[in-house]
Amino acid sequence: MHLDAKPPSGPLDKKWEKHQLEMKLVNPANKRRFDVIVVGSGLAGASAAATLAELGYHVKCFCFQDSPRRAHSIAAQGGINAAKNYQNDGDSVRRLFYDTIKGGDFRGREANTYRLAQLSVNIIDQCVAQGVPFAREYGGLLTNRSFGGAQVSRTFYARGQTGQQLLIGAYQALSRQIGAGTVEMHPRTEMLELVLVDGQAKGIVVRNLVTGEVSSHAADAVVLATGGYSNVFYLSTNARGCNVTATHRAYKKGAAFANPCYTQIHPTCIPVSGDHQSKLTLMSESLRNDGRVWVPKKKGDKRAPDQIPEADRDYFLERKYPSFGNLAPRDISSRAAKEACDEGRGVGPTGLGVYLDFADAIQRLGEGTIRERYGNLFDMYETITGESAYQQPMRIFPALHYTMGGLWVDYNLMSNIPGLFVVGEANFSDHGANRLGASALMQGLADGYFILPYTIGNYFASTKPQKPSVSHPEFKKSEENVRNQTKRLLSIKGKRTATSFHRELGKLLWDKCGMARDEAGLKQALKRIPELREEFWQNLTVPGDSGEFNQSLEYAGRVADYMEFGELLCTDALTRRESCGGHFRTEFQTEDGEALRDDEAFSFVSAWEFKGVDQAPVLHKEPLVYEEVKMTQRSYK
Amino acid sequence: MNVIQKLFRSSLGKKTIMAITGILLFGFVIVHMLGNLQIFLGADVINTYAAFLKSKPALLWVARIGLLVLVGLHIGSAVQLSRQNRAARPIPYGDAKHPGASYASRTMLMSGLIVLAFIIYHLLHFTVAVPGVNLLGASAQLPNGDFLQLKDATGHQDVFRMLVLGFSNVWVSGFYIVGMALLCMHLSHGISSLFQSLGIRQHFCGQCLDRLAMLLAAIIFIGNSSIPIAILLGYGR
Amino acid sequence: MNLTLKVWRQKSANSPGRFQDHTARNVMPDMSFLEMLDVVNEELAERGEEPIAFDSDCREGICGACSLVINGIPHGGNAGTATCQLHMRHFHDGQTITIEPWRARAFPPVKDLVVDRSAFDRIIQSGGFVSVNTGGTPDANALPIPKVDQELAMDAAACIGCGACVAACKNASAMLFVAAKVQHLALLPQGKVEANRRVLSMVEAMDAEGFGACSVTGSCEAVCPKQISLDFISRMNRDYLKA
């Protein structure tokens, strides 16, 4: 496998401009002869599909949801970063770029990240023109807030639902093209196979989730915009339907999977209340501006929080990180909370939680001010837990939230398979080992609106691909694979449901490959996962039939992929013998418990090549070359 | 799309027709009520008023035809909309609740149809004065049972006596009061919702509009029912 | 607690549906309504029976996928929340709960509690957008927008497209959804340019999908998980008449 990232030469800030000039164009009249398949309709997928159609390509877009408007981008609350410097506080493209590279613990690709920062500016213009109601000042101009430890205010937001507003913008652009007949939309349709003809991505095989019908779709290029894989952990803040199936199956067809061990944990989620828990709910990190995080000093202290005197409380973030205190970065505060719980000092019925206490803030600022700042979050907390955070401390716990890893792509967002492009969270992206807050939306839209539409044209113009017919034997073979797997899942008729397997796998991964990882734990997981997979294929039960709307069957197929993907995740985590960003190996930490990178040995992108389900995958390394940035150690003391 | 198409084809257009005809009909109801309330000023006043109306047959017929057209449009749109509404939910809920919806708002078609029945009776009773419907039969006061033959001292039709006699029957008065109650209910929702259909609700406070509608509807009810009630209690007998 | 569920079961769009009783055992107050159904479904699946099909995705009240009529009220009757945000602490032991799908001709059934809401998508496709292509847009701050207009547009834009308004309306009318969509764009200068064309075609598409008309009963506003105001319908009516 040859991995050439193809970053353009020249100074960092001129690379994209230079590349745009060098890329070949497709004659407008010829564009309609090219078919593009876009899988996924979130920010990246919808913006890509709409823009490609505007340019004149013929687009087919697929999503498993009942409407493209429901993709999980919708759930992003906080905002979207852009280097507009509207606040005159010294922001610039270079600063946003540097913050992103540094936040990613120097494991991102320099040229990609710089381009992301450059394009952030265009995204805001585009969204405002589409009618996204970003928050404004009384003077009518856009307002910003600071986010995720950045020292400038560069985050644009639309109340607590920035993700939904941006997605509606992209969805409306997509709807306009569907209405115009240039995009053929296939909702409630799941991609189950990527089809390669002569080593090039030429189409997909899908299952219609309503009728169960399996069909093939051919195209000149395939774009995957299918999001991240947080749900491999069973409990995460992702929507229930989010899954790894599309990217995993592309991986099985030869696409390299990059950095799967880079997963992000969000520190302020509502704790698990029991086994029935189906997902975790994230609450804005802004809560940590006024809340104090603590646990009892004594193990197993079951007193009610107001019965625990100051002397018996451990404000562990303030103790460990005196200068950042409760505002320590996501990964650091998450790990500290986990450590406290591991020591048996966790709170709440499950012991998996820490207090986030507003009593001091209420005393200092008054309940009114707190209500004004966090009223909606307190209401949300009360809706879910039935407890009022005005009267007693909130309980919070970290949860899986975002995955930086994904399919490997070059500067053109094309994977190592010609014709297979990957955008948004689904690619291994521009975030390195850790993503900054309010950068996910930015990346999805930069990829979809402003990068892919150019680079895909270059691919068409320079390779002149030929679209095969769906009767090509490769399509027939892939359809057969899909039908066989469906048949196999339904025919086991064992005792355990897909949920029960998924829950067990998720717990294993969370324990062994979650916030903190070590060699012994990862090896245990790598031993256990194949056993669990074996049992899955022996003892699974899937009710219902294949020729109908069958949610159990859809889900079982996704869990089957997790059973394989979880192993890759642990393999990558085991191989990366350093700590960086979201990947924390307990063996590799500084004396202060900080992530200890090994830039000598691990300054590369791990790209994994599939060799077979029960075979070890092969690691390929793309060295990370920093032309302009100097690597430094993060410190939040 | 031209205006006519917009009004008659789309659901919003039909709602606009309902709202505009509703306002005009409501205006008529107010004027009609004020005219009737002259009964409390004595026989001379109301009889003179009636004679004045009758003396302008052209105007009277224009008004009558106008009203007929308004009622026709109002009902026609209502029936079409109701048909559309019914078709919009072919399978009903097993357990149907109507959060936030008043009883009046959910029964507009029914209350409207009963009011229509009432109006037809009212026209037969006092306007066409079909002798059979007043349930009085022939008596010394009312030869042939025919209201139109009642004349006052000046030779005008004696509307005062017609009303007093007409409402002396408990069943007839009762039906009028029920009719007014339903009209009141119909108006209590209709008056506030027409602001919505005409697109001007956002300039007022929604609750104030609802209350204003209630008040106006109550005035209509009290004003109009006061006549049969007063007569049953002995006024004019 | 233990509950009896009266659930609408329907094998497919064309087969007849009926209510079927299911028992939910050991329900905990901290469970969400959908997690309670998950547990019931697990039991059904373990017994080899068909689980109850229902839509859900984000489970935090923003994607608009969940769509249950619970005891006659879409999303269950807690103000400003979607079904996924309804928790079992609002129910009591031994209670019988009726669960039905959204019912409207324009939302044909798919299976059990799942319906097809693509009518909403088609209404948007008919004109619910600003006709701008990617690129070539002016600077975001080139056009100041009064904060009140932006806030009002945001109130309308908060719509999550769940369809509870249709489900609650006695006429199965989609006016609140369409009005929210029309007004979100009409209130902003970027959307004003083609506001007339938009409102005309979206209303036409709405009627063509077979939704009922608005009787201003206010049920839609009462069940809307984002508490979108009836005033937007009034504004749309005015824009429509002006257009």
Overview of this structure, please?
Chain A is built from 17 helices and 19 strands. Chain A is of the alpha+beta class. Among the domains of chain A are: 265-400, Alpha-Beta Complex (Flavocytochrome C3, Chain A, domain 1); 477-602, Up-down Bundle (Methane Monooxygenase Hydroxylase, Chain G, domain 1). In chain A, strands 5-2-1-9-17 form a 5-stranded parallel beta sheet. In chain A, strand 18 and strand 19 (618-623) form a beta hairpin. In chain A, helix 3 (43-55) runs parallel beside helix 12 and helix 10 runs antiparallel to helix 11 (367-385). With 237 residues, chain B is mostly helical. Chain B has one domain (3-88, 105-232): 3 helical TM bundles of succinate and fumarate reductases, CATH 1.20.1300. In chain B, 69% of the residues lie in helices and 0% in strands. Chain B contains 9 helices and no strands. Chain C is of the alpha+beta class. Chain C has helices spanning 33-46, 118-125, 147-157, 164-168, 175-186, 189-192, 195-208, 219-223, 231-242, and strands at 3-9, 18-24, 69-70, 73-74, 96-100, 109-111, 114-115. Classes of the chains: A alpha+beta (637), B mainly alpha (237), C alpha+beta (243). Chains in contact: A-C, B-C. Chains B and C meet through helix 2, helix 4 and helix 8 of B and helix 7, helix 8 and helix 9 of C.
Helical percentage of chain C: 25-40%
Largest interface: A-C, 82 and 79 residues
CATH topology of the largest domain in chain C: Fumarate Reductase Iron-sulfur Protein, Chain B, domain 2
CATH top-level class of the largest domain in chain C = Mainly Alpha
Rg of chain B, alpha carbons: 20 Å
Report the total helices of chain C: 9
Shape of chain B: elongated
User: How many distinct domains of chain C?
Assistant: 2
Low-pLDDT runs of chain C = none
- Helices of chain B, by number, come to 9
> Quick one: how many beta strands of chain C?
7
What is the ordering of alpha helices and beta strands of chain C?
EEHEEEEEHHHHHHHH
Total domain units of chain B: 1
- State the name of the first-level CATH class of chain B: Mainly Alpha
Assess the beta-strand content of chain C as a share of residues. 5-15%
Order of helices and strands of chain B: HHHHHHHHH
CATH homologous superfamily descriptor of the largest domain in chain C: Alpha-helical ferredoxin
Largest sheet of chain B: none
Structural class of chain B: mainly alpha
What portion of the residues of chain B fall into strands of 2 or more residues? under 5%
Q: What is the helix content of chain B?
A: 55-70%
